[in-house]
């Protein structure tokens, strides 16, 4: 059973893999955070646990300065990666699934796009994403995978500064869903 797919879009490689986001050695890993930026469960908990207190210190500073009322959904901010292999963590906040008619698709796309833009504006070359909103926030992963793949593809069609975007799925069954979605999207048909 192969557990990885990859494809080039322009100069950027997209990889879809099964794994733990905190183990990725990309320049940045993305945190599926909440507006407080003060940590939580899932990916957020794992990143703060492994990355150490420097990440939370920088999150607190961001709250004190730029986002006193919390980070709005769809936005992203960057901090150190602390003790992680990745030098940076990009924190973004996806939508909570409330049936699909409360701007969830647009906000999920914005979360991916803001994170990618922040990576580029910081001169980073490689970035790894978890499957934003599909855990505690309850976004159905079949739907979320379409948005994740489409948004990354459309971004890379206009932007060639990144070397690699990795989509990291925690479980084999989530990876299988992403792979299935990829095969339905024209650009990803040559994925192998
Ligand atoms: N590596 C990769 N993926 C993971 C990992 C990991 N170490 N751990 C979990 N996942 P979630 P959300 C998967 O709940 O839905 C937090 O409390 C998981 O299986 O982390 O955006 C925050 O503070 C799922 O597919 O993020 C927020 O309050 C995906 O990552 C809230 O949860 C996302 O699950 C955010 O919820």
Quick tags:
single chain, 192 residues, alpha/beta, Leucine Aminopeptidase, subunit E, domain 1, 7-stranded mixed sheet, 7 strands, 20% strand, globular, binds ligand AR6
Describe the structure.
The structure is a single chain. This protein has a single domain (23-188), classed as Leucine Aminopeptidase, subunit E, domain 1, CATH 3.40.220.10. A seven-stranded mixed sheet has the order 1-2-7-6-3-5-4, sandwiched between helices. Strand 6 (126-129), helix 4 and strand 7 form a beta-alpha-beta unit. The protein contains five helices and seven strands. It is an alpha/beta fold. It is globular, with a radius of gyration of 15 Å. The two termini are 12 Å apart. Ligand AR6 binds next to helix 1.
Number of domains: 1
**Strand line-up of the largest beta sheet:** 1-2-7-6-3-5-4
* Sequence stretches where pLDDT stays below 50 over 5 or more residues: none
CATH architecture: 3-Layer(aba) Sandwich
The chain-level mean pLDDT equals 95
CATH T-level fold name: Leucine Aminopeptidase, subunit E, domain 1
Number of strands: 7
Global geometry: globular
Task: State the separation between the terminal residues, measured CA to CA.
Answer: 12 Å
Describe the structure concisely.
The protein has helices at residues 42-51, 53-65, 104-121, 141-158, 172-184, and strands at 4-9, 12-18, 28-32, 76-80, 88-92, 126-129, 164-169.
